[in-house]
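Lecture notes, structural biology module. Today: joint structure prediction for complexes of two components.
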Amino acid sequence: MKRIWSWGAIVFGGLYFLLPLIGTVEFSLRMRRGEYSLDAYRSVLADPQFRATFSYSVVMALLTIVLGVLIVVPTAYWVRLRLPRLRPVIEFITLLPLVIPAIVVVFGYIRLYNTSSILPLTGTASGTNLLLLCGYATLALPYMYRAVDTGLSTLDVRSLTEAAQSLGAGWTRIIGSLILPNVLGAVMSGAFLSFAIVIGEFTMAALLNRPAFGPYMQLLGANRAYEPAALAVIAFAATWGCMGVMQLISRLAGVRKTAK
Amino acid sequence: MMSRFGWNWLGIVPFLAFAGLFLVLPTMNIVIGAFQNPEGHFTLANLAGLASPRIVDSFAISIKVSLASALLGCLIGFAMAAAVVMGGVPDWIKAPLMTFSGVASNFAGVPLAFAFIATLGRVGLVTMLLKQWFGINIYAMGFNLLSFWGLTLTYLFFQIPLMILIITPALEGLKREWREAAEVLGASSGQYWRMVALPILFPSLLGTFALLFANSFGAVATAYALTGSSLSIVPIMLFAQIRGDVLQDPHLGYAMAFGMIVVTGLANLAYVIMRSRAERWMR
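The predicted structure, tokenised, for the full assembly:
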């Protein structure tokens, strides 16, 4: 009896999750009348706009990861080493992006950094790019911080630091060639999650008017029939790729730790 | 000692500067704007302005969609998690389900909308199959993807996985002894659930429900790509307001954004409180 209910829940849920995936793949192959073809993918990949926006978002995602690591790793390390009492406060701040909707944050950007403000970032394309980058780093902050902080919790930060200091290492050296390599697995998992979030992000890019992949997908969705399905398949594959690599890394890291 | 503590502060200055400039100040700016008139004086008129039928309607439908998708997400996610943790389903299902949940809970946004259009849109796969195989035309029966139920159904695609991710550890935390103790005292399986397991899980369930609620309340991209501006939920209306001042009053826009923060803030607060209650049992 119990087993029937369990299987029922799994099959029902499985169908709910599988059908949209199958539906999308099937729809993306339907472009040519009467037979399945890859025309929709061809059409998407041949679109120069696709290449431009996709590479824009990839570059933004990579820069987001770099900025995120630069902000999060030293902070999480320092808080653990010297300011443990502030940890709840810092943690609270890093969780704020999950509470404040992205649309409100970007609304604030537009109001705070408009052309008539002290810091008119939205006045130029490069300024707006920088603003979007910081916005993305904010979105990724909760995931990045949690990943790195968990990574740090497995280390004896104090002893490592004292050992390095007694060997004459400075702060940049300690963080760059001691702490960072030790939490690399955690950093990577945060990085892939950030990548998956940034690559298709819509709200911030659209409201800041940047030519990113998310707004491009939305525009294509409003104007075409079959290409959006092909895009969805590509985006889903990219997300899966990122998450798959992330899980692999965390599993490998886990194996290494238990092997020790 | 005092001076050492003073120097230690410097280490987190970059972080605080970043969070201040790109998270706290922009949000504060909107909140303050919600309480200012165009001349910059304090006023409650903007908040009072939220009572206009259009805005009240948008909050009502947003809250309805969020409640429905959170409730169904909790129920279905709980059923699936319970099935793998204790329902006698083979063990190999668990790992793929958790991996998939990790991916799908992050698969919100524009592509998700496309996936559902391709599946349940007017010429979507499921729509067509239902018509061809069973002669059921769901659109003739009044279903529309660009509606309350359509949006709820789409949101479930990231709500259910989030529920599975959060509730599975809680289910695994139910101690075997509790069930055995209940059985020794003659409790049926139903009684065990009703009188032991569910009361223990209740804070976790309620907390996750609040989190799911906030999760769908703030979602913009999925709804925008799915319905355009035909379904005026709060984030869509705010989006239109930021783009083109559709309310014809910038400060009313700030008030609306403030309203959004209040709703998601309260939901998250409920989550935090419930989680700390849940942890009492999980030691």
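Point to remember: Chain B has a mean pLDDT of 87.
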